[in-house]
Amino acid sequence: MRYYVNIEEIENKIVEKLKGKLTDLLVDSFPEKPQDFVFTHPKGAVLVHYQGGSYGNIESVGAIFQNKKMEFALTIVTRSLRTKNSGAYALLEEIKSILTGFQTDGCSKMSPTKEGFLTENNGIWQYTINFEFTTPSIESEDE
Q1: What is the per-residue pLDDT across 58-98, written as a single tens digit (0 to 9) for each?
Q2: Taking the model in full, what pTM does it have?
Q3: What is the domain class of 7-138 according to CATH?
Q4: Which residues of 49-67 are buried (b: 16+ CB within 10 A; e: fewer)?
């Protein structure tokens, strides 16, 4: 039996959670070709992607068992920095509220790890907020 957490499935669950709460924004997975992304939404977008992971110490002397810390980044793209309910600052706080404590199968609850400014170009603001959680990483059994 193989035990692993599917990165794409987790990403999809995060997107669905946010879509249910941020109904007046574009919420989607980060585009395969970011250079082709054209921001046309009148208010804003939230784009989700897997940032990476790290592995903890091995917890046994037999089969390999360790915790994997996974991190997802959410890029906020908006036409405003301070506008109530749709500015970058407000969206950072709203996303933090929505995802803090969110849990998917086989994972611990999500918690925020960092947030920050990415860029501004012609009045289009981009910020990021990252969340992490842990999941077990277990050696596959030979069949």
Answers
A1: 767 777 778 889 999 999 999 999 988 889 999 999 999 99
A2: 0.89
A3: alpha beta
A4: ebeebeeeeeeeeeeeeee
